[in-house]
């Protein structure tokens, strides 16, 4: 039998006179499907495309309207690698507790259910902030930050985070890598400053494409320039 | 015998009637010394203090005088971790090919036989430079950069590098770790963004103290804050 016992599916008394034929047919179907897909699980060196996330902003529609005006239209500049996501035409100036500013920080689309600024530790030190390393959308301990737009500004009491290292993937990718949503893993970037990143969160959604997201500190530490692939090394 | 054969040192015909006594004495001396030192080599988890190098400048005396005036005195502000090295009281503004400047870049002492600016890849991108990842003092492929001081400025045709990850150590530390000068190794920094740094150069000098030097990109990627130790993982 090809990986299963037909009796466990249909009970002991299946098929009558055609019992042997049915068992052989089940075997054949199983074998042909297994042949097609099993190679997927034999990849011992899967490479993962790497995307570098520069500092960026997510906004609610309400906050966007406040900063850009009630009649402002939220417009796409260019699509991102993940289907449906895009860099918008809009940027803001962000200001932290040292009263230093970083200008032209881009807002990504689509608009979301929360306001969030994702920065690197390098940015945090410059701005004088102490944001947590956390998942996108986990804002309980996020740092205070001011957003300045052309029509108004807002002070977010809990707005700034350092996004953790994570890999977007489909449930098929997860099967290949042997991981589940919420697992943490290690990946390696080769090169003159080759680096193994630990505590990389697995995030699964069948609308996504396989891609690891690193911030600019991680990317610059590993001397990533241009198109780079990471080697998956296993779970933590 | 304790690790050696006395005959190989003094020949076959040593000691005459006192041969047995001499052999026993040699054994005893050897054993007592081995007992004292051999534990050193059993450390399987040696921790290495980590020092983070912010962008900085090394100058020759000639260039210092040009930038600060012929009568200027090169003065210490505070000592660094490595014996004899110090942060000076003097800073410069550096300017790259995008004509952007980074202000207040500190000169380290003592003065050296070459002019060199050590920056991170983050700095390089901001300045518009393409410096190599290389050893301090290896300036063959260094990037052009301008230094601006209070009395003059200089254009260094080959001045800017990204210093490679390295560990300063004594020959004793090298014995403990089982490495030699010029080897490359891996080390791990634990924490929320735990990271394994590869291609870390071993540099040996008995005037130094054991310390790994990382630049601010590496340090911020691993979320290093305050006093941190790295775990030695072995040679590359």
TrEMBL record, chains A, B:
It holds the Pfam family PTAC. Pathway: Polyol metabolism; 1,2-propanediol degradation. InterPro entries: PTAC. GO terms for molecular function: acyltransferase activity, transferring groups other than amino-acyl groups; metal ion binding. One of its GO terms (biological process) is 1,2-propanediol catabolic process. It comes from the Bacteria. Its cofactor is Zn(2+). It is found in: Bacterial microcompartment. Keywords: Acyltransferase, Bacterial microcompartment, Metal-binding, Transferase, Zinc. It is an enzyme of class 2 (transferase). It catalyses: propanoyl-CoA + phosphate = propanoyl phosphate + CoA. Its EC number is 2.3.1.222. GO terms for cellular component: bacterial microcompartment. Belongs to the PduL family. Involved in 1,2-propanediol (1,2-PD) degradation by catalyzing the conversion of propanoyl-CoA to propanoyl-phosphate. This is Phosphate propanoyltransferase. It comes from Melioribacter roseus (strain DSM 23840 / JCM 17771 / VKM B-2668 / P3M-2).
